[in-house]
Write a structure and sequence with these properties.
The complex is a heterodimer.
Chain A (H helix, E strand, L loop, with lengths): L1 E5 L2 E5 L2 E3 L2 E4 L2 E5 L5 E5 L2 E10 L2 E6 L2 E8 L6 H4 L1 E3 L4 E6 L6 E2 L4 E7 L2 E6 L4 E6 L6 E2 L4 E7 L3
Antiparallel strand pairs in A: 1-2, 1-9, 3-4, 4-5, 5-6, 6-7, 7-8, 8-9, 10-17, 11-13, 11-16, 12-15, 13-14, 15-17
Chain B lengths: L2 E4 L3 H13 L3 E6 L7 H4 L3 E4 L5 H4 L2 H10 L4 E3 L9 H9 L3 E2 L4 H8 L1 H10 L7 E3 L8 H19 L3 E9 L2 E6 L5 H16 L4 E5 L5 E9 L5 E13 L2 E7 L6 H17 L4 E9 L5 E7 L6 H8 L3 H9 L14 E8 L1 E2 L5 E2 L2 E2 L2 E3 L6 E5 L6 E2 L6 E9 L2 H14 L1 E3 L5 H7 L3 H4 L7 H5 L11 H12 L18 H8 L2
Parallel strand pairs in B: 1-2, 1-4, 2-3, 4-5
Antiparallel strand pairs in B: 6-9, 7-8, 7-9, 10-11, 10-13, 11-12, 12-15, 13-14, 15-22, 16-17, 18-21, 19-23, 20-22
Helix pairs in contact in B: 5-6, 8-9, 13-14
The chains are: A mainly beta, B alpha+beta.
Chain lengths: 154, 502
């Protein structure tokens, strides 16, 4: 069993290896010698490209690119922990909250600047700011923790 | 001219370096510390390292001129962006005894200052957008200057009418620009525009233009040589824009007939001649539905979208730039436009997430091939997309006998284009090709805002895509790209983006 996230939805899927061919439900998938995949579903058969980088599953199939995410069993996603990490290297233009503040979903928390553009980090849910790890003017690296927000008890 | 130094990077450096090779010229590239081995360095006879990493390295005019002198270059081609429209740099190149492959510093200056350009154009009989320059004698005291500007703008706004656009004279790319709907928001807009313009350009002068809603952005390519010949090479329509950033360009414009083309062409030639222009340049117009057109600005450099003009006219614009700079007459025949060309800009950005720039490895980068295609790019499979530079990865250009066939060809090409490892706007561009306004050639500069008021979102993953994802997730690490020496480092930022930036 494997969990694959597409957008906001997590799909539980059951790939079964059978010789050189994988089956997922009524779909058969075969890796070709050149690295591409032949994907068959009923009468249709398409060639696809796919590669995994970290937890991201990159797929090009039928003229479209899809970006999925493999979710490892037992792993807590960062979102559940409530910590916010920098999506890209950049500078902290403004910090709009401090530890202890109550915030509501959609409220701007801080403003980052990367690639000459301003990006607003907003609260995804109502909650309380537990900690702020950066200050105005700081440079941050990708993945660096910015702040933590604890969700209100539902 | 025997050796040309190309003071740029990425796809335009590649484009110019290739033109140099075709012209039999020796070519010198330059590269920042973080671009050792970049594609453009391989297309040159030699590449000179610049100190520093990121865009600032390519903005070091002194170091670039020193590199040119040291390596026996006799000309410098600036490409676009970076130093291409800095009159001071152009003058320094000339003072160093080198050939500047571009228009004179004086022409750059007169077109670069938008108020001067408007006045020059009016005097040359080129129609400008109805509006007014705000002439305030600077006193050196910002409070006094701001107050004087506020008074003058309030008065002028009565004559220009609302809605209007407030623009910085030194501006460009939307900086120092404000749309003002009514007198109420005027003062605040003036303060904001001035503040922004002073911060960005050290020059807070502003002017007013009537806001022309639903107008098309139509621009005319011009070419002028030092032997007194100035020609136009027809128009390009670039109305499909996002935050003043063009994304989809075509030539010719579907609603410009031969008569209109000649009138706009004549205006463009008059504009160029008014500043004694030499080289390749673009005169931008806003065109209303009844065909009325107004001068917007002149870009005194080769433009990103120049390939569509090359495909429909058969003129190699960069080759002509080199010829003109060498003092030769241009070799351009009488204008004959053939077929239809479309260009889209492939950006490393996430269209489903406010078009935030994205980074990552180009783990798979397979451009389409086949009839009628051209790809101008500065990246290869295996390259890393860095946050230090412009996120444009490539320009995909198609040429076909008719507009419909060109659009069909573009759809096919975008579906064939495979980029994995970095999020791009390819799927967004593919959707654009089906947009009613695009199909019916009725695009305006507000088309994108109207088509996607709540932003664009990708089609949901198909069952087949999910199945392949499940197999990739289950397959052993030995089969994944990461184990083949690809980047396994930081998690892709995109998922944190989609979660953190609702």
């Amino acid at each position: 069993m494997v969990d694959v996230r597409a957008g906001d939805t997590v799909h539980e899927l059951h790939p079964v290896p059978r010789g050189g061919v994988w089956s997922v439900g009524d779909i058969d998938l075969q890796r070709l010698p050149d690295g591409r995949w032949q994907v068959r579903q009923g009468e249709t058969s398409v060639l696809a490209h796919g590669t995994r980088i970290g937890d991201v599953l990159w797929i090009h199939l039928d003229g479209r690119v899809h970006r999925l995410e493999a979710i490892e069993a037992g792993a807590n996603s960062a979102e559940e922990e409530g910590s916010f990490s920098a999506p890209m290297p950049g500078g902290v233009l403004d910090v709009l909250v401090s530890a202890g503040d109550m915030v509501t979903a959609g409220q701007p928390l801080l403003v980052l600047e990367a690639m000459k553009m301003e990006h607003r980090v907003t609260a995804p849910y109502d909650g309380r700011v537990v900690a702020v790890y950066v200050a105005q003017g700081d440079r941050v690296q990708q993945g660096e923790s910015l702040l933590e927000v604890e969700a209100n008890e539902a | 001219m025997r050796t040309v130094l190309v003071a740029n990077r990425g796809e335009i450096a590649c484009r110019v370096l290739r033109a140099c090779r075709e012209a039999g010229l020796r070519a010198v590239a330059v590269h920042a510390e973080d671009e050792v081995g970049a594609m453009h360095t391989e297309l040159a006879d030699l590449s000179v390292p610049l100190s520093g990493a990121g865009a600032s390295a390519y903005l070091d005019g002194e170091a670039i001129i020193a590199a040119a002198l040291q390596h026996d270059a006799d000309g410098i081609h600036p490409g676009f962006g970076f130093l291409s429209e800095r009159a001071g740099f152009a003058q320094a190149v000339i003072d160093a005894g080198l050939i500047w492959i571009g228009p004179s510093p004086d022409a750059i200056k007169r077109m670069g200052d938008k108020m001067t350009a408007r006045i020059t154009m009016r005097e040359a009989g080129v129609p400008v957008i109805p509006g007014e320059e705000i002439e305030v004698e600077p006193t050196g005291d910002e409070t006094a200057d701001l107050d004087a500007t506020l008074v003058a703008v309030r008065e002028a706004s009565q004559r220009v009418g609302f809605p209007l656009l407030l623009k910085a004279s030194a501006g460009g790319g939307g900086k120092g620009m404000r749309a003002v709907e009514s007198a109420e928001g005027l003062d605040e807009a003036v303060r904001g525009a001035r503040r922004e313009a002073i911060a960005a350009f050290g020059d807070g002068r502003v002017y007013l233009e009537r806001l022309l809603r639903g107008a098309r952005h139509v621009e005319v390519q011009v070419l002028a040589d030092a032997h007194g010949r100035t020609v136009h090479l027809g128009e390009r329509e670039c109305s499909v824009q996002r935050r003043h950033q063009k994304v989809f360009e075509e030539a010719p414009c579907a609603v410009v007939d031969e008569d209109q083309r000649q009138r706009m062409g004549a205006a463009a030639i008059a504009a160029a001649e008014a500043v004694d222009y030499v080289g390749a340049g673009t005169v931008e117009f806003l065109m209303e539905n009844d065909g009325t057109f107004h001068f917007l600005e002149m870009n005194t450099r080769i433009q990103v979208e120049h390939p569509i003009t090359e495909l429909v006219t058969g003129v190699d614009l960069v080759r002509e730039q080199l010829r003109i700079a060498a003092g030769e007459p241009m070799t351009v025949p009488d204008l004959a436009m053939r077929g239809h060309a479309i260009e889209v800009r492939i950006y490393a950005e996430d269209p489903a997430n406010g078009f935030l720039p994205s980074i990552g490895p180009l783990a798979v980068f397979r451009p389409p091939t086949g009839p009628g295609l051209r790809l101008d790019t500065g990246v290869r499979e295996g390259d890393e997309v860095s946050p230090s530079y412009d996120p444009m990865l490539a320009k995909l250009i198609v040429h076909a006998p008719s507009r419909n066939e060109a659009l069909q060809r573009m759809r096919r090409a975008l579906e064939e284009f495979i980029i994995l490892g970095t999020t791009t706007n390819v799927a967004f561009l593919r959707d654009l090709c089906d947009l009613d306004a695009v199909v019916s050639a009725s695009t305006s500069t507000t088309t994108l805002d109207e088509a996607y008021p709540n932003g664009w979102s990708a089609e949901p993953a198909t069952e087949a895509a999910l199945a392949l994802g499940a197999v990739l997730a289950s397959a052993s690490q030995g089969q994944t790209h990461a184990a083949e020496g690809g980047p396994s480092g930081p998690r892709s930022p995109f998922f944190s983006l989609s979660r953190r930036y609702p």
